[in-house]
Design a protein that fits this description.
The protein has 730 residues and is an alpha+beta fold. The chain has 4 domains: 140 residues, Endopeptidase. Chain P, domain 1 (Glutathione S-transferase Yfyf (Class Pi), Chain A, domain 2), CATH 1.20.1050; 263 residues, Neurolysin, domain 3 (Orthogonal Bundle), CATH 1.10.1370; 73 residues, no CATH class; 169 residues, Neurolysin, domain 3, CATH 1.10.1370.40. 51% of the residues lie in helices and 8% in strands. It is globular. The two termini are 48 Å apart. Belongs to the peptidase M3 family.
Length: 730
């Protein structure tokens, strides 16, 4: 048995074999697509292109997971090699003139298009958009320039991402025990000892302890100092260093953005935002900008109220009224213990800020009530209430997973049977346990798609990804006919605290929200039943993909839900409701300020991909950031800072960072329309409506249609004329 049950992946060499075999199979389909001339052959084009994508993605997506989580370097290297082989081949296919011409010819024949299902039409049109985004329809000379610029963008984007950290690597404090008053003493002592080893001979005159401390700016240590140091000058030095940038870092970012503007110019568009958003829900930068600005305007009074509370604490502390600066926010936030803003005040006579000890102790003890196992059972119960789906532990065969921590869950519907499989790699690696992807993530290993109507059948081969040894297909009756689908395989990765002797892995509330979020993506993959891989599950528009996951986050923030599976891992006692409600409220501290920060980042992303970038001589990312922050955020921009070089999402999101806020709006409305305030016993009706109107379609239908059927789209919103509503955020 090999990884995920694929027979060929029992050994690292199987990855390269699988990649080469996939290319061979794919090339056979490419040849058939390019040779099509008759209507009978052209009508097979969309299905063949989708099958082609499935063959290649089954290998490249599996390799993507394994190179990020496998502790064995041989498997990682083999997965990297397979990924490289297939990425290069996919790049060739994305600019393949023969495939493009056949698809265009197919879409130009009205008799073929009229006979297509709505789902097939959508797939064909999305494939055409993808082709033309690569400049394939341009004259040869223009296309060559397009490719050159695009290659340069990739090069710059990689450099930008790799160097998205402060240019000032360290901040030195020569009188550490004085400069760092308020910072936990053990941390200060450790910094001094480390600095003493680096620079012998520097000792405080009043103490035997080393006095010099050198603080790395790209570290949790710097964040801790920003949060705890009593002296404003200390916090300011740390903040300025943490937001520093070199002229080279800025020039790399600005060249990447102006190169994107050059691509837009070649495509005849006024900005890169107009290019990138064409196939998104929002459709245009104008609609995105209107959404973000009206939401920011509606949120600003709440944001200002939170700012004023922080400023009141600073005024009491310093005796001055000069406003909260960037280096003050984290420090003064800790004195707001609850959203009702019961406050304590900093004291220069104590090494740590004064807080209610009882409150802190009680808040910190919450994780004892939430083990990973009980939380997964709670998730299963929620899914059962919503969709009639449960998560069933399944036996893992030898060689099927990459680490002993990995657990396998079958997703089973009460009447439809098995829907797919989720592999859960949830714990941080043990010491010496090898590398692992550090963030929470949802990886698709195999998409669901219809397979009984494939035009090109292949005999199962030992080293291909087409036929794993575990269950692959399931029938779904539809009237008198049945459709045969391959089952999806999903991997969830997190880095939760490992179990310890006598204690299971325990979760804080933010960990529970993370798990619910990622499981929301997984359930989208499980419950979508599309005929095409290209639109399966989470393969939806970028600005809609987070709706199911954010919806699950809202359930994870509900004391009503959390109380159902909160029980002490030792005694089995249920979690006290007052403790749970207090913690849920505590997590909402300064939520409006954080929301305004996210809106600022989303608007900055839009401005950087707007017509402003078309003029290289005047395009200045720092000036744009300064003007935006001072116009919409209560904490003023700090001159000399260049935070934008750390906004690494500018490369990956490409004018779509607004997507989280956009999705948050819909998830909030769906939650309040279908579930909020209703007994859990009545959730099934809302869950079925959400499944039928949203989840089951994957990317096979315009998401606006499902949202309109649910009744959460307000008048004028689709045309970009709606106004922001803070009720969508809280």
């Amino acid at each position: 048995m090999g990884l995920f049950g694929y027979l060929g992946l029992h050994h690292p060499a199987g990855f390269v074999s699988a990649a080469k075999n996939a290319v061979q199979r794919a090339q056979g389909i490419v040849d058939k697509v390019c040779a099509a001339t008759t209507d009978d052959e052209l009508k097979k084009t969309t299905k063949r292109l989708d099958t082609l994508s499935d063959i290649l993605c089954c290998v490249v997506d599996t390799a993507e997971v394994i190179r990020n989580v496998h502790p064995d370097k041989e498997f990682v290297n083999a997965a990297n090699q397979a990924h490289s082989i297939l990425s290069n081949y996919l790049n060739q296919l994305n600019t393949h003139q023969g495939l493009y011409k056949t698809l265009k010819q197919t879409l130009d024949r009205s008799n073929i298009v009229d006979a297509m299902s709505e789902e097939e039409k959508r797939v064909a049109k999305l494939l055409m958009i993808d082709f033309e985004k690569s400049g394939i329809h341009m004259p040869d000379a223009t296309r060559a320039e397009f490719v050159r610029i695009n290659d340069r963008i990739l090069e710059l984007g990689q450099e930008f991402t790799m160097n998205s950290f402060p240019s000032e690597e360290f901040v030195q404090f020569d009188d550490a025990h004085n400069d760092l008053i308020g910072v936990p003493i053990p941390l200060v002592d450790a910094l001094c000892r480390a600095s003493s080893r680096a620079k012998r001979g520097s000792q405080s005159e009043s103490s035997n302890r080393p006095a010099r401390a050198i603080v790395p700016t790209s570290s949790d240590i710097a964040s801790t100092i920003l949060r705890t140091a009593h002296k404003e000058e200390t916090r300011k030095r740390i903040y300025l260093a943490m937001n520093s940038a070199s002229s080279h870092q800025i020039s790399v970012l600005e060249e990447m953005l102006t190169c994107r503007a050059d691509l837009a110019r070649l495509l005849g568009k006024p900005s890169y935002g107009h290019v990138y958003l064409i196939d998104k829900m929002a459709e245009s930068p104008e609609k995105v900008k209107s959404f973000l600005e009206t939401l920011s305007y509606a949120n600003r009074p709440l944001c200002d109220n939170e700012y004023n509370r922080l400023n009141d604490i600073k005024r009491v502390h310093t005796g001055r009224s000069e406003g909260i600066r960037g280096w003050d926010r984290s420090y003064y936030t800790q004195f707001l213990t609850r959203p009702t803003y019961e406050t304590t005040h900093p004291s220069s006579s104590t090494p740590t800020p004064l807080r209610s000890g009882a409150t802190s102790l009680r808040l910190n003890s919450l994780s004892s009530y939430y083990s990973v196992g009980s939380t997964l059972q709670g998730l299963s119960d929620v899914f059962n209430m919503l969709y009639g789906v449960r998560l069933e532990p399944s036996q893992v065969l030898q060689g099927e997973t990459w680490h002993p921590d990995v657990r396998k869950l079958d997703v089973v519907h009460e009447t439809e049977g098995k829907l797919g499989t989720i592999y859960c790699d949830l714990f941080s690696r043990e010491s010496g346990g090898g590398r692992k992807y550090e963030s929470a993530a949802h990886f698709t290993v195999r998409c669901s798609r219809r397979i009984d109507n494939d035009y090109d059948h292949y005999e199962p081969n030992f080293d291909t990804m087409s036929n794993p040894n575990n269950e692959q297909i399931v029938y779904h009756s539809q009237g008198k006919s049945s459709k045969l689908y391959q089952l999806p395989i999903i991997v969830l990765v997190t880095s939760f605290q490992r179990p310890q002797e006598g204690r299971p892995g325990l979760l804080e509330l933010h960990d529970i929200q993370t798990l619910f979020h990622e499981m929301g993506h997984a359930m989208h993959s499980m419950l979508a039943k599309t005929d095409y891989q290209h639109i399966a599950g989470t393969r939806v528009a970028m600005d809609f993909v987070e709706v199911p996951s954010i919806l699950m986050e809202l359930f994870a923030k509900s004391p009503q839900v959390l109380a159902k599976f909160g029980q002490h891992y030792q005694t089995g006692d249920p979690i006290p409701m007052d403790l749970l409600e207090a913690q849920c409220l505590h997590l909402l501290t300064l939520e409006a300020l954080e929301t305004q920060q996210q809106l600022k980042m989303a608007l900055l992303d839009q401005l950087y991909h707007s017509p402003l970038a078309m003029s290289k001589s005047t395009f200045n990312t720092t000036s744009i950031l300064e003007d935006l922050q001072n116009s919409m955020f209560p904490i003023a921009f700090a001159p000399g800072t260049h935070w934008q070089i750390q906004f690494s999402h500018l490369f990956g999101y490409s004018a779509s960072y607004y997507s989280y806020m956009w999705s948050r709006r819909w998830a909030s409305r769906i939650y309040h329309k279908l579930f909020h305030g209703k007994p859990m016993e009545e959730w099934r009706a809302g869950g079925e409506e959400f499944r039928q109107q949203v989840l089951r379609w994957g990317g096979g239908r315009d998401p606006w249609i499902g949202l309109q059927h649910i009744g959460v789209v307000k008048e004028g919103e689709r045309d970009g004329h709606g106004s922001g509503d803070v009720n969508d955020l809280y």
